[in-house]
Amino acid sequence: MVATDTSLTDALVAALPEGSVILNPDSMHAYRWDRANDPDAGMPLAVVRVTSTEQVQTVVRLAAAANVPIVPRGAGSSLSGGSTAIDGCIVLSLDRMREITVDPVTRTVVTQPGAFNAEVKAAAAEHGLWYPPDPASFQFCSIGGNVATNAGGLCCVKYGVTTDYVLGMTVVLADGRAVTLGGPKIKDVAGYSLMKLFTGSEGTLCIITEIVLRLVPAQRPPTTLVATFATLEDAMATVLAITKTMRPSMLEFMDRVSINAVEDVTKMGLDRSAAAMLVVQSDEPAGHAGVEIAEVEALCAMHKATECFFTDDPDEGEAFVTARRIAIPSVEKLGTVLMEDVGVPLPRLGDLVVGIEQIAQNRDVVIAVIAHAGDGNTHPLLVFNPNDKAQQARAEIAYGEVMDLAVSLGGTITGEHGVGRLKRAWLPGYLGPDVLELNHRIKAAFDPAGILNPGVVLDPAWSAT
Ligand SMILES: Cc1cc2nc3c(=O)[nH]c(=O)nc-3n(C[C@H](O)[C@H](O)[C@H](O)COP(=O)(O)OP(=O)(O)OC[C@H]3O[C@@H](n4cnc5c(N)ncnc54)[C@H](O)[C@@H]3O)c2cc1C
What we know:
The structure is a single chain. 35% of the residues lie in helices and 20% in strands. It is of the alpha+beta class. Residues 34-35, 71-79, 82-83, 94, 113, 135-137, 141-142, 144-146, 148-149, 151-153, 202-203, 207-208, 328-329, 416-417, 453, 456 line the site of flavin-adenine dinucleotide (FAD).
């Protein structure tokens, strides 16, 4: 599916405003990779930077006529290779579509997909409102990418993930038609729930060009508790004890490798000898937050926390949340990282984390683990030296073993980052043949020619027989 002549690029240049189409290979370079850093990223035919739904329609119609694949791209922070370019594709960048309009009456925001999550939060805050989903990348990921991956985040343990806030969207389909679903209304069950289907569809079913999101009243200032543990088992038992009895607004986990990686960068005095650290927040109303955090403190003590303290000071609390947020870039300083996103039912979280440690030992690879622990969603980061091919091979084996372990514990191969290109091989085993077939039927219904992000989520060469 690689265009061999310049007819498509000429047509794109003719149809779109000046400066929309990038053809220079050097300038296209920045659009080839996402944060998964796939060494097999392809070379696009063109990068197109659009500013409206109509322009997206033009690009899709021209690409469809030429049978050229499109890779939709928000901010390129995907950790699963979802926005990695393929050879001969058009990278359709939504990064210039950044308009945001807040309606405080309906408590909704209408946003174009390229706006950063942080920009949507800031616009809502001007009206005393809040858009809760907060991927650790919220300062540099787009809201369209969040919807396309159904992103989670740190406060999602209490406030839910992206799909819980999507009330409406305009999307461009693979044949170039634009359709609008939902809107600023709270309840709507008319017809099949296409918005739920498109949320998390990773650019494979449609291109999202406008989104209506629900907002809630501003979050109360949280109380933050930090606890360290000498063993993974004690930390995991604490997580389970907390989630059994309460719903904190944050319940995050870092293991020894990630604590040390963050300490290398921040020098903030984290306990390098701890096997695990939990960061817990309560945003209950004044008085109640203190009660909830005191209960968490008691549970930490009951499960042999080596150190535990809490603070009402927002800046002090934020320093620990930031430590958790920068864990991924900090671990990336240790070497090349293969990132996982496996999740399990909460009672199996301990088995998962301890099992990952075992895999790291067996395969002699470094695996740092951070987790949205209250959601049972872990991010094992497998670190290797790209010049050590034997080590890289062991890391790649361990990568699969971690997903197999999660599935064997009743879990999933991805909790929030999406299947992308990197986890596609594990999807059939996770879904089973019947559900896999349903997935392929849905893809065929919305994108029969397979031009939208081919190779992401599903194998384009799949056959049921
Ligand atoms: C340090 C770090 C921390 C992170 N923490 C979290 C976290 O806590 N939680 C979490 O969920 N993720 C996290 N991520 C992953 C990533 O930020 C999210 O997946 C995010 O939602 C991707 O947004 P993006 O704009 O960068 O999308 P991109 O990387 O550009 O694209 C991601 C996918 O969405 C598709 N896409 C993008 N825009 C559109 C559109 N408008 N229409 C259709 N398809 C589209 C792409 O084709 C691709 O498949 C983290 C990443 C980093 C680097």
